[in-house]
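Weekly modeling sync, notes
Attendees: S.R. (lead), two postdocs, one rotation student

Agenda item 3: backlog of single-chain predictions. S.R. asked that every request posted to the team notebook include the full sequence so nobody has to chase files. The rotation student volunteered to paste the first one in as an example of the format we agreed on. Action items at the bottom.

Example entry:
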Amino acid sequence: MAVVIGTNAGFVESNPTADPQGSNFTMSNRAWVCHDTSPATAVKITEVGFWVDSGGANESYDVGLYAADGAVVPGEAGTLLEESTGHNVSGASGWQRVTGLNWSIDSSTSYWLAVTLTSVIVTNESYPNDTGTGEDYISDTSFPDPYGGAALLDANETWATYAVWEAAAAEGTNTQINIGDDWKAIAAMQINIGDVWKDVAGAQINIGDAWKEIF
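Predicted structure, as returned to the notebook:
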């Protein structure tokens, strides 16, 4: 196995499970980011994760998302768009995952996935040589806004950090349901009338004596 954009790094359709087995890089007391472009149908991120090769058991970490609008290096991480903080590393090694996210994103757009370790620990992160889409880090235990990288660390490598994305529902109802702490879009609705299921063509809600359209 190796670190591959779309498989165990960057935007992925499902979370990875295998050891990425890339080269190790010590990440301690730093906020680090890796770059990728969202898929053409992506509308949100539901999970962010990263690989810990050794060390760091029970230490804390945060995950985040930056826009690619950095002022120093064009296309570098800039504005902090989202963050989820106060998570603990489970075990000495393995994939660390933050689920149940509902981060809205634009399709076909450059983003930087971010992770920071909030304690000074030795954590090794796998990365490939010259097969990635960009990586960087700064010395910080939180996410600065803007990110403020002085120079891009490497434009051709990436860490084993991923984001699970979802597309818009084919027939949207503008409604979601929470299943296992993960918000899922409801593509369609039906109602049972006389033991026959009928499609719901539209729905409205009354707010302040005014009917508002849901879909």
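Discussion: group reviewed the output briefly. Residues 172 and 187 are 5 Å apart (CA to CA).
Action items: rotation student to repeat for the remaining queue; S.R. to check formatting next week.
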